[in-house]
Write a structure and sequence with these properties.
Layout (H helix, E strand, L loop, with lengths): L5 H25 L8 H8 L22 E3 L7 E3 L16 H14 L3 E7 L22 E7 L33 H30 L1
Antiparallel strand pairs: 1-2, 3-4
Helix pairs in contact: 1-3
């Protein structure tokens, strides 16, 4: 049984997400996708890019199953091979699989509003003449598809800067302090004391301002 180092897996996952997002971002900057792109199309382009130097490979070893078999329709006991179990898995690449690209990397770019998912008419469908058929149900083909599209920088949402903090007069003498630990009598006395100190502070600042103007 293979020993799994959880810390190594999480560390490699974080490195793969950051490196994969940077790699996909560079692809989108130099590769035009006027009609958008699917996750599979982007994956086919991304795996052609070399991984970064010193990129740690995926620490887990996938099961060494060369061919997967499924039951044949003619005989339940007969099996036929359907190909490799993980034909597109790249352990040494940041974009190691289509699933990893879809669930881990693309959500990062979508969260930063660099890309967004859109539903648009399909462009890969050829017009087919409808012919009436008897006894067979016609398969419904969707004429719409979901694709990713790059969001122009000027159309991305930019968070507003936080409002400037208002200057609170009297923090030096206790304004804004927590007096909840005192009983009600002491709280009233402390509030009166702070109010008197703030009044004296305002008068002093006004006098200083008049002297400076003078």
């Amino acid at each position: 049984m293979q020993k799994v180092n959880a810390e190594a897996v999480l560390r490699q996952r974080g490195r793969a997400i950051s490196s994969g997002a940077a790699l996909v971002r560079s692809i989108l900057q130099r590769t035009p996708f006027p009609n958008g792109f699917t996750t599979k199309e982007l994956f086919d382009v991304a795996v052609q890019e070399p991984p970064p130097k010193d990129f740690p490979p995926y620490p887990l070893t996938l099961p060494g199953i060369k061919n997967v078999q499924k039951p044949s329709k003619k005989a339940k006991s007969a099996f036929k091979p359907i190909g490799p179990l993980y034909p597109t898995f790249r352990a040494d690449h940041p974009v190691r699989s289509i699933r990893f690209l879809k669930t881990e990397i693309l959500p990062v770019l979508a969260g930063r509003q660099e890309i967004r998912m859109m539903n648009q008419p399909r462009t890969d469908l050829a017009p087919v003449a409808e012919t009436p058929t008897k006894g067979k149900k016609k398969k419904k083909t969707s004429h719409m598809e979901f694709v990713w599209k790059v969001v122009a920088p000027e159309n991305r949402w930019v968070p507003k800067p936080p409002p400037p903090k208002k200057e609170v007069v009297g923090t030096e003498v206790g304004v804004g302090a927590d007096f909840s630990h005192l009983n009600k009598r002491r709280q009233r006395a402390r509030v009166e004391k702070v109010s008197a100190a703030v009044t004296r502070m305002k008068e002093y600042r006004q006098q200083q301002g008049e002297e400076l103007v003078w």
